[in-house]
Amino acid sequence: MELNSKKLERTSRIVYYSISIILCLFLILLSNKIIDDLDTIVVRPEVENFENKFVMADLDKKINLLTNELENLNTQKSTIEKTISTAKENYKNEKQSFENWVQTRKTLGSPDKDQEVTDRAKKLDECYKIEQDWRLQLNAKERESEKIGKKQEEIQVLIDKETEIAETKYDKELQYYDLKVFLIRLLFVAPILALGIFFFVRYRRHQFWPLYFGFSLFSFYAFFFGLVPYLPSYGGYVRYAVGITLSAGLGYYVIKTIRQFIETKQAELQVSTQERSRNIQAEAAEKALENHFCPSCGKDFIIKKWEIPFKNNELDAYKLVADFCRHCGLQLFKNCNQCGNKNFAHLPFCASCGTKSVIDK
Q: Are residues 297 and 210 in the same domain?
């Protein structure tokens, strides 16, 4: 006997969807590995591949020579600056010594006519001249450094120009690369999406529907999310166009299915109640009884208290359930021929005595 308890039905639904999700997850992981490997089919371009190597090598050589020369000049300038500092200190000390000596000599007469005063003044002038000579050399080195700096700037402009040309070619080639990668991945994903749609439409009621449903989930993920990191600027149009097409197609299918169902139901209601009773399956009858609706037209068969006329201020509980559907006339409840107990007419056995065939089908 088939088990139809609510707990079993709920557990089965959880198990089925778990199978679908687990299958979808592993398919996603596998597809990600495959899609990553597809990158090796097309070599990604690099900026260096589009540079004029001979021109760049020559410019790099020139700028390196100028850099070395500038470093040597900076070293020489540093040495000259230290020498100037020493000469300046010597001049300062010599001047202080001369001034002290002159003050001492004033007590002896006219120091400005003294030969020794002249010699000392001459020596002081020589110290000052040495400092100035080194300063002239430092200024010459600075002018030379400025010239080298200007040459470096000119060469750097040429390097930047060559780099800009290479980047322009690289950007153009990168667009071709993105297009190739996108098309390769689209060729991989598009058949998966088509197969997923086919499984969803064709096998959604199959006994192994969780497996088909899991693949369908994976196909939608692979197309609408798996391609996102690799879409070029125009790739979104492809994805949105496919999304619109799928939405329109599925919408048309759902609307058509619902209308066919409504028309079928309306056609069923035109036949006799006996014929409709024979076409009701046990599973549909169980759901109808559990949710208290008519298995033929789907309307609720529970009668509200205010809908029943009172007799002698008494109301039997069983009168709250209609024996016949008020909307389509189908018999819903009938007394058992064996024990007289009232049963749902479309279940195969009496709930009281177990007698088979409550209603003739």
A: no
Q: Do the Cβ atoms of 206 and 198 come closer than 8 Å?
A: no
Is residue 297 situated within a structural domain?
yes
59 close to 158: Cβ distance less than 8 angstroms: yes
Token pair of 117 as six digits: 């005063």
Return the DSSP state at 306: G
Q: What own/partner pairs with CB < 8 Å and gap ≥ 24 does 30-35 have?
A: 31/189, 31/192, 31/218, 31/222, 31/226, 32/226, 34/188, 35/185, 35/188, 35/226, 35/230
pLDDT at 239 over 70: no
Q: Are residues 110 and 208 in the same domain?
A: yes
Q: Which two tokens stand for residue 166?
A: 């290479």
Same domain assignment for residues 16 and 89: yes
Domain that includes residue 298, residue range = 273-344
Q: Which DSSP letter does residue 232 get?
A: -
Residue in 268, 274, 267 with CA at minimum distance from that of residue 330: 274
Question: How many CB atoms are closer than 10 A to CB 291?
Answer: 9
Q: pLDDT tier at 358 (50, 70, 90 boundaries)?
A: very low
Enter the pTM of the model: 0.47
The number of residues making up the chain comes to 361
Same domain, 214 and 93: yes
**pLDDT digits 0-9 by tens, 76-109:** 888 888 888 887 787 777 777 766 666 666 655 5
Are 202 and 297 members of one domain?
A: no
d(C-alpha 84, C-alpha 63), whole Å: 31
Residues 214 and 294 both lie in one domain: no
261 in a structural domain: no
235-268 vs 115-202: helix axis angle to the nearest 10? Answer: 20
List the structure tokens of 197.
């749609």
Largest CA distance in the chain: 162
Q: Are residues 80 and 187 in the same domain?
A: yes
Spatial CB neighbours of 272, under 8 Å, sequence gap ≥ 6: none
The tokens of 7 are what? Answer: 């707990």
| Statement to judge: residues 319 and 216 lie in one domain | no
